[in-house]
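Session log. Operator J.P. requested a structure for one protein chain; no other inputs attached. Running the standard single-chain path with token output.
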Amino acid sequence: MKHTQILFFVTIILTFSCSRTLHAQDETKATKYRRSSICMVLIESDNFERKETVIKAYSNAPFPDKYNDHSLTSKSFDPKKYSITEADRKAAGTDKSATGKMVSGMASKATNGIVDNTAADNTLIINKYIKENKIANQLVAKWFDRKPDGSFDMSVIADRGFYNASEMEASIASKEKKGRASLSDAGIELLENTFVVFSKMSFVSNEPVARVIRDVAKAEAAKNIKMPMLLKKANEAADAAYEKTKEGYSVWTTSYLYRLKWNDSVANVFYTDLWIDKSNPDPKKKAAFDETNLFELELVGDEKASSIVLFSLKEKRTEDQIIEIATVRNIDAVFAKLEKEYEVFRPKVPLSTVEPITAKIGMKEGMEGGEKFEVLEQTADPETGLTQYKRKATIKLDGELVWDNRYNAGEEPQVAEVKEGEEKKPVLDRSTFNGKGKNLYAGMLIRQIE
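Structure written below.
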């Protein structure tokens, strides 16, 4: 009897342990999902106040964890090496009127070039940098783990997309269309979602910027308002806005989002004419890849963000620490704007739990509460073998349970407010959503729709 009791308790313990292990494995598996990949490049600026602190903060900022790191060797470039002519501007349709140049020139002086006549030139400069350095070729080379002899393999793609590398390489060698389903899927899921974010940063005093805005507003009012009383009110409003916004400094970030062009036509040329197997080096194909203009980047759009920096005697942090926090949060803010504005850049995030419905997304991504998300189930099309996402539900972010995951949000853990008679709510390490959790499970992907 004693042995039976011992066996019974051992069985209970083992069952509990196995259950915990399987649950942990399920959670681990749920976090494995196909992310978009990004490369971040800094557009170097001329000297500005506290430049060293700002650039150091940018360089040390945590990499956006909703994306794969697809960084290249060169992480910055000097725009002065890629000068733009009036002919370039006319060809691109970005040349300005004399009035536009005057206003932009005033803004340029006030903001150390963040808002200036060359702002329209930035995309032209970036395009020239991309072309002359064959950045698109470099991105493709990284995807296929290109070796010094020019050969490729599928190790990176297999790792990020959870494919079988050997099978994919074999399908390239066989040249059978049917066997290339996984290659096509990888193109849609991974290579098509490869982005480069070019960012320009600065640290400026708010007073000159506020003054430019005030002066431009007054100039416009003088030109368009004929009644003295109305003109006086307009000028008073401009002065009031100036007084309100002139204090302190601002960290400015302007980011330009580019996407790698990848489609079936590009893929077919690459796999047929440029692919080099490691067992069969081919110097001619190696040279052809280096010289080809097959691969391109296209501009998706751009966004700006600024963070106000105020120094206070009550603040325990140093001025450099304050600037660092503002800089990193500013980077997060411009990413959040890009994600909200451009659907192709919106990340998918896995559900952490379904009772309640939670996910690791929050204020860093610009969430405030009330945003709507679709819940997607990843399946394979039985006919094509391609990955497809089916909407299973819609959920809404609970405004009272938004996770503050901003950089250095605070050392104390966040705890939701507890009302009298209610149970203590858990520490916020993720955001909570309202919606029906029926037929949902951890690991399903969510994507913002509103």
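Operator note: The chain has two domains: 36-345, 348-450.
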